[in-house]
Specification:
The protein has 351 residues and is an alpha/beta fold. It folds into two domains: 16-169 and 302-351, no CATH class; 173-294, no CATH class. 33% of the residues lie in helices and 7% in strands. It contains eleven helices and seven strands. It has helices spanning 18-33, 41-49, 66-75, 77-82, 160-171, 185-188, 218-223, 231-238, 285-294, 299-317, 332-348; strands spanning 56-62, 86-88, 90-91, 94-95, 109-112, 118-120, 147-149. The strands form two sheets. Strands 2-1-5-7-6 form a five-stranded mixed β-sheet, with helices on one face. Helix 10 (299-317) runs antiparallel to helix 11. It is globular, with a radius of gyration of 21 Å.
Amino acid sequence: MSNDLLGPGDVLLESLPDEVVATMEVRDRWLAGLKSADGGLEFLVVDLQAWVPGQRIRVAFRGGDPGLWADIEQATAPISAVANLHLDFRAGGEFRTWSEQDTEHAAEIRVAFDRKGYFSLVGTDSVNPRIGLPQEPVGGRPGQLSLNLGGFTVNRPATWAGTVRHEFLHALAFGHEHQNMRGPCEAAFRWEDDPGYQPTQDNRGGYVVDASGMRPGVYTYLSGFPNGWSRAKVDHNLRTPANTAALVAGPFDPASVMLYRFPALFYRSNPSPCAPVGPGQELSDGDRQGLTLLYPRDDVATDAARGRRENLARALESTPGDDGLESFPGPVAEFSREAAARLRACLGSAE
């Protein structure tokens, strides 16, 4: 799909490849079955999918040039100013790069520019070899990209800096604000077509208002140009998860850089309680609060977060059934050992 076909009113939503989502669902089923000895599932998810406060998170590029890389580094500076993390773009003064032939991780966040659209793996999925398929370009293995800024090497959008911040917050374990379980968006979206809507497409295949003024719903709209999504893909990317395993740092924030700018026909009402406030290019107060909660600078909170991860690593390394972990058949022990190894690697690179 050529960007030349996109018009000013088109909304091309970010989306991870289907094979990546499928492996994430396997990981989520394993995670949902774990029982934490001290704390609920939400703590368990945070401790496994967020990085460790004080950790050095390396960033590497494939494609582009030092001028583009410097702009991306600068765009993420407001994140580094708040979070107790070190986004490390350089080695020996030079920008770090990565290759598809790497056999060890050159960086926790591996940026490329050659896939369609914008997307990022979430948190420690970026270094999880169970995420993505080995023969595909996106995943948690050393030679796979974890964050994509499609087309930035050719023509950056006017909102490029906000897009960079959005994707890097995903890489730091933030979810979409419209999927915040404390927010109004699930009830505010028009999921289905207006009654009597006659499917009507423009010359590019996008669904539009029909001759009677009836509107396509979210499912129909996103099935056409430029997204081409199935209902299952819409559910994964837009609907609010029914479980409590999602990372939620605070109440719904309409000013968040993590909230999409949707077309008016997505909403049941105008104005909508799900609609964004402001341009959404800079970190909001809520975004900064979320970074502070996940990656605190306070010594007591930082020590508590590291202590939880140390205890969790020990539990994951033990035989399933011990230390409060439920016993499972099959590959659960292998999944658990790998998760423990990632936790220890994060702890080892934390200050």
